[in-house]
Amino acid sequence: MDARRGGTGSWLYLLAAALVIAGVLIFVDLLVLPFTGMQRVAMPGTQQLTLTRSGTYTVVYEYQGSLSGVAYDAARDEPGLRITVVDAATGQPVALTGVSHNLGRYSLGSRGGYSVARFTVDQPGTYAISAAYPTGQTGPTFALGLVHATLGSLVGDLVVGVAALVLGLASGVLVALVAIVKRLAARPPRSTREPTPAD
User: Fold this and answer.
1) CB neighbours (10 Å) of residue 6?
2) Above 90 in pLDDT, residue 25?
3) Other C-beta atoms within 10 Å of 108: how many?
4) The whole model's pTM is what?
5) What's the number of domains the chain is made of?
6) DSSP per-residue string spanning 75-90
7) Distance CA 132, CA 136 (A)
8) What SS3 state is found at 177?
9) Domain of residue 84, CATH code
10) pLDDT for 32-62, tens place per residue?
């Protein structure tokens, strides 16, 4: 009987660990990977990017980080950049709209940035993205990144990712506590018999 209880406790520990890991993985998949895997290009200047999917992209201003071994550290406040996106095949400009900087803000190790605009493409292809400081101004190198997601979906992912992380941690701790209680209950009671006097 004690062996079975011990085995149950061991499985509960494994379940607790699995719940915590699942919560962390969901959080990373929804909130970290979109930014670590985004396409980034050094700016100011013009770069061509191949967009493999149609839909909406969020443009990220990354003021701090490194690209191709070159570190950059620009102004934290986006300096009124002039950003354009052009379909390389047709030469037609793609309309951009502004977004809230606060909702797309992130910090990943030495990298930091936030969303500044978004645009939608009807089909995959090569697009030229440009960024320049306001007329007459110069500044340090920074990076622009493209995330295949809208700001609304990023906010939704934020809610789901944080909820998954919190629930995973909480449920993992709860299951671990149940395992501890079961293990303690399975222990044989300590003897309370008083020693008999020596003859």
Assistant:
1) 13
2) no
3) 13
4) 0.59
5) 1
6) -SS----EEEEEETTT
7) 10
8) helix
9) 2.60.120
10) 444 555 788 999 999 999 998 888 888 989 9
